[in-house]
Design brief:
- The structure holds two protein chains of two kinds.
- Chain A has four helices and five strands, in the order βββαβαβαα.
- Chain A is of the alpha/beta class.
- In chain A, strand 4, helix 2 and strand 5 form a beta-alpha-beta unit.
- Chain A starts with a strand and ends with a helix.
- The chains are: A alpha/beta, B alpha+beta.
Chain lengths: ~140, ~600
């Protein structure tokens, strides 16, 4: 995940067809993704988690492969969640000290649940992976 | 008990390290107070009236004796009242001298809380907890909270299927879920697998019942949108049978729609119950549509393979010392027949078990001189000793704030009784009047409008006579110090709610609520008796209500059944006749 300072960020230009800013209460499934290379999602407050679901839907559901940029109240303690939900770029809020950012990414060796980037949950990739795959193939697909 | 893997163990240690990093940045001034707050909350650290309150997660209520001993150490070494500046005490609400310290508190959501740990010791405590795989992950904050279950999961005689393997799988899925860490509000899941609902599932954001369909397949009935607080709502069944292996995919749909649609403009309208009420079928349709998309487009990555369920289920096999090798017992509960206390203990505190040679025994943490659900360090150690000797090292925290020993041999009941009695934990009052659910109230909680501990103490004082208690029979009394309802007053047969008027404490009484258990019938919301009562009047009101019951009941009829049969009017009349101070000041009472 690329982390950039607020000063290095330029807002999407209106009318420029390859970029789009999506309000955090908008449904990303209404977007026409053709030709778009950058989508900015917004955190009005870092405690407002709607943009995580938007990023997930863009990345996993809609198969969007371009840039998803986190803007607004972006702090370092949420960067890992952002990356796992599908964001590829984060614009740190002005005044945020970035020095502690990298060690957040280095800390955990893995997580339990699958996410937008790493789709398989932990239980599907452990020593039981082969048995898991065989079972899934055998089970009815609901 | 669930056997934690190396991954599990390491994960909790890394989480403790992450918290220390955040704490140090906050102490060093590079992390602002309002930025640190949600982070500490998601690790269980509140800041209360005098001190931080730490909530430790106990997944589906299971605690090993090793974990109990670490909790005992924390109670003794860190839960210290004298370490704090107490001059900020609210003289109207706090009686500092009587406030308990050096103890742990069992909560209605099967967690454990401490009240006096200084924040500068918090990272050390997290490391200590992590040494026995305990933590405070997601015990607070607007995220998926610790999943609760039946205290008798896996051992109950009335069980259809053991809910613990699925509870553990849900625990893993919800832990540090990246998409759902900042929901509109907190989110609570409860799961049961027995016919008797001992986890109040209808009162949860998601209530799950493990059951079997006619073909014998295991699945779940899914309820969504229950909750207490200022707007009590019972959950709505949105799926009558979901295949067990789809639970994570389905929960993902339930929570994602809530994350996208839930209100964020008003904290009082942010819970999923408000969304389900407002949107009704539209919410249900959206969840179903989202679920279908997860299956067909996303590839349903969280479908649970049989192999994974088998792996987790294998962690819950009965302890070796409690199967197969038990001696044949002619008289499983050999006991002095003339010991009335012991006979009553067998009736109230000992429950049937799947294995006819075993029993489930509840240690009562409802006794005079201690706040309901409080356990001192020494009592925690003693409980750990009892668990080791009589219950294969395992205990369960109950929704009613007690501790269960789930693997007790029937022939060892007399010995266990003698030891539990010596420890003061064998009071035969489980499910009786004095087995009250009570929140910490205004003595500790910064949100509370009134104290709850002195009121529960006064009621317990009045009903110490065991003959009378047993004659009154099973009654749910629940008390909350404010409308947030941590004491579950809405679901009580007799509910007590602290309210405040001009800085004074008043108490509203409700009748005929139900948690949804067999004793209480389908979950229902208690109805308010009338204007609030003064603190001094509350025990008299309880007595008046109970006297009315005794005068009205038919032979063997439980309190809640009499109440339902004759209606609330005679009880209300009796309660209002017990007014003394509020009768002389009806206007003030009406306004309260």
């Amino acid at each position: 995940m690329k982390i950039i300072a607020a000063t290095a960020h330029t807002a999407c230009v209106e009318g420029q067809k390859d970029q789009v800013f999506l309000a955090n209460d908008a449904d990303p499934r209404t977007l026409d993704l053709a030709g778009i290379t950058r989508i900015d999602l917004h955190f009005p407050k870092f405690t407002d988690g709607r943009a995580y679901s938007q990023a997930f839907l863009l990345r996993r559901r809609l198969g969007y492969t371009g840039e998803i940029r986190a803007t607004g109240d972006v702090l370092i303690d949420q960067l890992v969640q952002m990356q796992r939900s599908g964001f590829s770029v984060a614009v740190l809020r002005e005044g945020v000290d970035a020095s502690a950012a990298q060690r957040q990414f280095d800390r955990f060796e893995g997580f339990y649940q699958g996410d937008a980037v790493h789709v398989e949950p932990h239980f599907a990739e452990t020593e039981n992976a082969a048995a898991y795959a065989a079972e899934l193939a055998r089970q009815d697909s609901y | 008990m669930y056997q934690y893997t190396e991954f599990d163990k390491q994960f909790v240690k890394l989480r403790a390290a992450q918290f220390r990093d955040q704490l140090e940045r906050w102490q060093g001034g590079t992390l602002a107070e309002d930025e640190f707050r949600p982070l500490r909350l998601q690790n269980g650290w509140y800041v209360q009236r005098f001190a931080p309150m730490l909530r430790v997660a106990v997944p589906y209520g299971e605690l090993s004796s090793a974990q109990l001993r670490v909790l005992a150490t924390i109670a003794r070494d860190y839960d210290k009242k004298d370490a704090h500046d107490l001059t900020k005490a609210n003289p109207g609400l706090s009686d500092l001298h009587s406030l308990p310290s050096a103890c742990a508190h069992f909560t209605t959501r099967q967690n454990v809380q401490f009240n006096w740990i200084p924040l500068d010791k918090s990272a050390d405590v997290m490391d200590l907890l992590a040494s026995v795989h305990l933590h405070g992950i997601q015990t607070s904050g607007n995220c998926i909270r610790n999943t609760t279950s039946d205290e008798r999961a896996g051992i109950a005689a009335d069980e259809i299927a053991d809910p613990r393997p699925l509870a553990e799988i849900i625990r893993q899925w919800s832990t540090l879920h990246p998409e759902f860490a900042f929901l509109p509000r907190k989110f609570k899941i409860a799961i049961v697998g027995a016919t008797d609902d001992r986890a109040a599932t209808a009162w949860h954001d998601v209530g799950l019942h493990v059951l079997k369909n006619e073909a014998g397949e295991v699945g779940l009935r899914v309820m969504v949108g229950g909750g207490m607080g200022r707007t009590p709502v019972l959950g709505t069944v949105i799926r009558s049978f979901l295949p067990w292996n789809q639970i994570l995919n389905y929960l993902e749909a339930v929570v994602r729609v809530y994350n996208r649609w839930g209100r964020r403009d008003n904290i009082y309208k942010a819970r999923i119950k408000i969304l389900v009420k407002a949107e009704g079928q539209r919410y249900i349709d959206e969840v179903e549509a989202e679920y279908q998309q997860i299956l067909t487009v996303d590839g349903a990555p969280h479908t649970i393979a049989q192999a994974e369920l088998d792996r987790v289920t294998a962690c819950f096999v009965p302890p070796a010392s409690r199967v197969g090798t038990l001696p044949a017992l002619n008289n499983p509960v050999a006991a002095p027949v003339d010991d009335k206390d012991y006979t009553r203990w067998l009736k109230q505190n000992v429950a049937a078990h799947k294995n006819p040679l075993l029993r489930s025994v509840t240690l009562s943490f409802k006794r005079l001189g201690y706040s309901p659900g409080d356990a001192t360090g020494d009592q925690l150690d003693l409980s750990a000793d009892l668990a080791d000797r009589y219950s294969a090292g395992e205990t369960r925290v109950t929704h009613d704030q007690n501790l269960v020993l789930p693997w007790v041999r029937a022939d060892e009941l007399p010995a266990l009784y003698a030891e539990a009695k010596a420890a003061g934990l064998a009071r035969a009052n489980i499910r009786l009047l004095t087995d009250m659910i009570v929140c910490p109230g205004g003595d500790f909680c910064a949100l509370a409008n009134a104290r709850s501990l002195p009121i529960s103490e006064a009621i317990s004082q009045r009903y110490q006579d065991m003959d009378e208690l047993h004659d009154l029979g099973e009654i749910d009394v629940h008390m909350s110090g404010c409308i947030n309802s941590c004491g579950h007053h809405h679901s009580a047969h007799i509910g007590i709610l602290g309210v405040d008027k001009d800085g004074q404490e008043w108490y509203q009484v409700t009748l005929a609520g139900s948690d949804g258990s067999n004793l209480s019938g389908p979950a229902s919301i208690g109805k308010v008796v009338g204007p609030s009562f003064s603190a001094a009047e509350v025990p008299d009101v309880i007595e008046a209500v109970l006297d009315t019951y005794r005068a009205t009941r038919t032979s063997g009829e439980a309190f809640i059944d009499t109440l339902r049969r004759v209606g609330q009017d005679p009880f209300k009349l009796a309660a209002n006749a017990a007014r003394t101070s509020t009768a002389r000041a009806p206007k003030a009472a009406a306004e309260a």
